[in-house]
Amino acid sequence: MENPISLPFLSLILLLLHLSNSQPTTSIYHTFLQCLRSHTNQPDHVSDILYAQTNASYTSVLRAFARNARFTSPSIQNPLLVLTPISEHHVQASVVCAKSIDVQLKIRSGGHDFEGVSYVSQGPFVILDMFNFQNVTVDVQNEIAVIQAGASLGQVYYRIWEKSKVHGFPAGACPTVGVGGHLSGGGYGNMIRKYGLSVDHVVDAKIVDVKGRVLDKATMGEDLFWAIRGGGGASFGVILSYTVKLVAVPDRVTVFQVDKTLEQNATDLVVQWQQVAPHTDARLFLRLVLQPVRSNVVKGQKTIRASVEALFLGEANELVTLLGKEFPLLGLKKELCHEMSWIDSVVWWANYNDGSSVNALLDRNHYSVHSNKRKSDYVQTPISRKGLTWIWKKMIELGTVELVFNPYGGKMNEVPSDATPFPHRAGNLYKIQYTVSWQEPGAAAEERFLSQIRVLHNYMTPFVSKNPRGAYFNYRDLDIGINNHGKNNYLDGKVYSMKYFKNNFERLVKVKSETDPENFFWNEQSIPSYPGHKETTINSFS
């Protein structure tokens, strides 16, 4: 017997028609507003933080932290409401009301989710935008900082520098990334080999759970505290803040960038980089950026440019001597090195080539929005010279996809793989980030560029980790699996979670099932609950 339209699909159509016809946005707005007022201690001001689609400021608020143009096109479904809380009570009320009305809640801190998961959904949803939670309180005497989830990494670095010139924090190079997502997914930067991940330095946290309670490390318990340090906060609640331990940085650090093309023996350079970067002095981070570019030697052809970008927590003389012995093919000379303060190195690494001062770190809008896609891999065995040659050929053929090799080793080899949900520790030489970006509008252009990165990722299969093929949670990639929030919630979630979390997956599911048994906090790649737990569906507002 033919069944051209399944019941679940028909139900979805009826649900969407119901929402679009019988429940206009204004009705949803008033329902949510009344709920918020009844659950906050300042009900008269609640309307200031709630934006319906009919509000003149709705679009600007929605797009203010949408960092990927792929998800700002007219075809993308917009949230019914955007909430911009300014107090913990607002966050608590938002959770309680979204749950009582039974609508999906997306949580955004900086908007850098590469797949737009924090501000895009296939069904009706509201956004809880945490950008007003920007306070960074630095206690130099105790060497800690309390960082609210909506603060940017640039704000964190600046506030630390304001109080101390010999302290820093090991986190990402992009200053506009939000703390809530960065830390809850692991977080790393150019001090990873000296100090490990960002989450390795989290000593406390505050979260609003599914019941609307504000919990800290003591009240949330050991398992939940473990889960939100690398397992993604949005699966378990709304992160309000993290308390982190600061790290020591020297008065002077050294940075440099050296570029080599294939015509300048870049292949041999990369072979030697693999022997050096994961094993050298832990104070040294040697990032390798590989890009297809126009050849200056053979007109009309492309080549590969290999750029070594470095941070050394020490002075130039020591660095030049070190790399002269360990990495002779780099040919580093002192005149290529730049000694500076740690905070100035943050600006340098941010690629602020416009003469910006450290004040630029406070500018959350210092970011160029374009369409992009990212993927990730882990390399556990050096790629041979022959293998690299094959990779260069494919990159040149495709034309636009870039690779970034981020070396591990050092502190990363010392932290057990189950100390946090992030499992990719000892045994990994480096992480690969695949990047493709474009400005050209339209679906055809998007499909062309997405195809390129997917082809290269598939081509790299023989050279990267296996069983499972690892991936970095903060380099979100929906190609490796999506949770459809149905009866196969657990099996759907296992597909991508095993790549992100490996053997830590089952503990994350256990925490999820205990803290959010109805799976209210879900998204396209959230941690699933165990089979048999009640599933929450997105219903109408009737």
UniProtKB/TrEMBL annotation:
Its cofactor is FAD. InterPro entries: BBE, FAD-bd_PCMH, FAD-bd_PCMH-like_sf, FAD-bd_PCMH_sub1, FAD-bd_PCMH_sub2, Oxid_FAD_bind_N. The keyword Lipoprotein does not apply. Residues 1-22 form the signal peptide. It holds the Pfam family BBE. It comes from the Eukaryota. SUPFAM superfamilies: FAD-binding/transporter-associated domain-like (SSF56176). One of its GO terms (molecular function) is FAD binding. One of its GO terms (biological process) is cannabinoid biosynthetic process. Coiled coil: none annotated. Residues 75-249 form the FAD-binding PCMH-type domain. Keywords: Disulfide bond, FAD, Flavoprotein, Glycoprotein, Signal. Belongs to the oxygen-dependent FAD-linked oxidoreductase family. This is FAD-binding PCMH-type domain-containing protein. It comes from Phaseolus coccineus.
